[in-house]
Amino acid sequence: MFKFHYNLERNAIGFVVAIVVVASIGGFIEIAPLFTINQTVEKVADMRVQTPLEIAGRNIYIREGCYACHSQMIRTLRDEVDRYGPYSLAVESQYDHPMLWGSKRTGPDLARLGNKYSDAWQTAHLNNPRDLVPESVMPAYRWLLRDKAKIDDLGEHLAALRTVGVPYTDEMIANAAIDAYAQANPDSPEAANVTVRYGEATNVRAFDGEPGAVTEMDALVAYLQSLGTLTDAAFQPQVAEVE
To answer: Which of 193, 196, 235, 239 is the most exposed place for a label (fewest CB within 10 A)?
Structure first.
């Protein structure tokens, strides 16, 4: 075996051919599942898209590297289901660009985090994790309460997501900045329009506890509270399809 490898390395053309063959096998294994993606992603009636404010929070989540320590995918293993809840379905992340499944858990999985804790808990935890979990190694994100969220360009973000298949309507894109403000200000005249456009299950409240200016804390907590709540498919009985 070692002699074959040694001889192969000395034959430039043979070595190149071997590289191409091995790379082709790996590429095929990665690409082939995409041809059956329509059968992989479940079809559900109650799947909603994320609101502009939740998208702003998702952008902050990515910016701060939260995906490096938290996963957003519950595997079918018994201990994971017992700890985190129903295993993740493909439909739940069909509108994620990029996907944030993660590959490491310094902290817990967040796939079912939505509405598990109160907004006040999430805000306090992000502001200084050790106030609530003394042994936490998570950094404090105190500036989220201070910095205002950038919401003026959210229409462009929604338009970009629509080009890759997220079904945002022209109305959603045109009203993105207004909806982002209204979702964090439930007493504003425009707040009712958020649930009209995104569904009755949408959280509309002052996520950081302070109505008025939309902070980065508002956006990130809104995003965290949406995780696992975009559809109830995972909580429904899974019935195998019979062809």
So the answer is: 239
Confidence of residue 238 (pLDDT cuts 50, 70, 90): low
Q: Which contacts of 142-146 are long-range, i.e. CB under 8 A and separated by 24 or more positions?
A: 143/216, 144/60, 144/215, 144/216, 144/217, 144/220, 145/208, 145/215, 145/216, 145/217, 146/215
Specify which residues 215 forms β-bridges with.
148
Range name among 4-18, 79-93, 101-115 with the lowest pLDDT average: 4-18
221 closest CA partner among 184, 171, 196, 193: 184
Q: Which residues pair with 148 in a beta bridge?
A: 215
pLDDT at 106 over 50: yes
* Number of Cα atoms under 13 Å in the Cβ half of residue 36: 6
Distances (CA, A) of 95 to 72, 166, 230: 14, 6, 10
Q: Is 124 exposed, middle or buried (0-12, 13-18, 19+ CB in 10 A)?
A: middle
